[in-house]
Every structure is written in structure tokens, then in C-alpha cells.
Structure to design on (225 residues):
């Protein structure tokens, strides 16, 4: 069956370091991958989209990669700040089917 | 724009009661989605509409759930009768152009507790 998984439930890092979150998919080939940020008690907020023919996308301190060989997307936050603490969700789209990962809760400590 | 507006934000109800959740999408968006989020199952798509017409309701868990979109600016998700396992956060979301490569804008959610 088709699955999208975010390996780490939680990630703790020190302020200023780069946070790297992983999203893996199995048994399908998504046309797009998206990353969302969700704060406690709030709805998810769109951050970045990357297409299957793109290797990398950047937006300010954010970078996302899409490796169709490894069936994986990596989401990086450089120079992390305590304000980056949140849950990050990846989502895949393929054939009118959009699936979300369970999310990784990132905590950036001062 | 005010974004996607959902009501109520919190609802506590007794098992067997009817629950109605409401959503106002972003003006001009032609797609509306209802999602449910739980710790166990994460974020799941229940149903989505295009131009007020239901397109895919395969995610609706059972006949106790129903959704309507009488016009472009309003949608409801109804649970009748409600059960404790329906306790979750229900998100409404909207987009222009559907899921394929477009940004989906989520509301703040309706937190439902069925006791």
C-alpha cells in the first residue's frame, strides 16, 4: 500500500544549528511534495512545494530536496531559531490523492 | 483576506448528539476540503468539493458523516449521531485549482470532544 512516513516523531536541536527533517514514501511516485508548518492549536500553514523533476527548492532559511531514487524528501532549516519550534508535516500528491505524514515536532533550544 | 473561517472552535457534546461544523472558504477559491486530525491517524482527507460539487467522499468514515456546500462561501460537516471515537480536530481548507501543485489554506480547526 502507498505510505508516506516521517521517521522522527520529535527532533531537538540547539539554536543556530541546521534542522533536517525526513519524509519517505513507498509504493508510489508523487508528482509533488509539500511541507507545512503547524503550531499547537493552529491549522497547517504551507511552506514549500517541490515537483518530482526538481532536485532542490529554497526559500529564505528553508531548503527542501526531492530524491526520487531514495524516495525521500529532506527539509532543512538553517540557522534555526526558537521561533522555528513547531510540528512540520510533509504531504505528497499523486493522481488526485494527497497524503500527509504524521509530522515531526521540532524544538529549537536557545 | 481573513483566511478560512471555521466554527465552532471548540465543541464538547454527548454521545448520540448531532454535531455541525461550519466553514467559510477564502473568497474566490474553487476547492474546499474537510480534513480530520488525530494523534493515531494524523491528517486525513474526508471529502472535497469543486465549485460546490462533492468530488470525492471516499474518506468519509461512515454514513454518520455528511457534508454539504450549498454555495461558494459556506460548507458544513455534520456528524449524526456522534460517538466518542469521532473526537478529533476537524480542519476545513480551500484552494484555487485543487490539490495538484497548489497551496492549500487551512482554517484553525474545530476541536470536537464527544463524551
Amino acid at each position: 500500500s502507498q505510505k508516506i512516513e516521517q521517521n522522527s516523531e520529535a527532533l531537538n536541536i540547539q539554536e543556530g544549528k541546521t534542522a533536517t527533517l525526513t519524509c519517505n514514501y513507498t509504493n508510489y511516485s508523487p508528482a509533488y511534495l509539500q511541507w507545512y508548518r503547524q503550531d499547537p492549536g493552529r491549522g497547517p500553514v504551507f511552506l514549500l512545494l517541490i515537483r518530482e523533476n526538481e532536485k532542490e527548492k529554497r526559500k529564505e532559511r528553508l531548503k527542501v530536496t526531492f530524491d526520487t531514487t531514495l524516495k525521500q524528501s529532506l527539509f532543512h532549516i538553517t540557522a534555526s531559531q526558537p521561533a522555528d519550534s513547531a510540528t512540520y508535516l510533509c504531504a505528497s500528491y499523486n493522481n488526485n490523492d494527497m497524503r500527509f505524514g504524521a509530522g515531526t515536532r521540532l524544538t529549537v533550544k536557545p | 483576506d481573513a483566511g478560512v473561517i471555521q466554527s465552532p472552535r471548540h465543541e464538547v457534546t454527548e454521545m448520540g448528539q448531532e454535531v455541525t461544523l461550519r466553514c467559510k472558504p477564502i473568497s474566490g477559491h474553487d476547492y474546499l476540503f474537510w480534513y480530520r486530525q488525530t494523534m493515531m491517524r494524523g491528517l486525513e482527507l474526508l471529502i472535497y468539493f469543486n465549485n460546490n460539487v462533492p468530488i470525492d467522499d471516499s474518506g468519509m468514515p461512515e454514513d454518520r458523516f455528511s457534508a454539504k456546500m450549498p454555495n461558494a462561501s459556506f460548507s458544513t460537516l455534520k456528524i449524526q449521531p456522534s460517538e466518542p471515537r469521532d473526537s478529533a480536530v476537524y480542519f476545513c481548507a480551500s484552494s484555487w485549482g485543487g490539490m495538484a501543485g497548489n497551496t492549500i489554506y487551512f482554517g484553525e480547526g474545530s476541536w470536537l470532544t464527544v463524551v
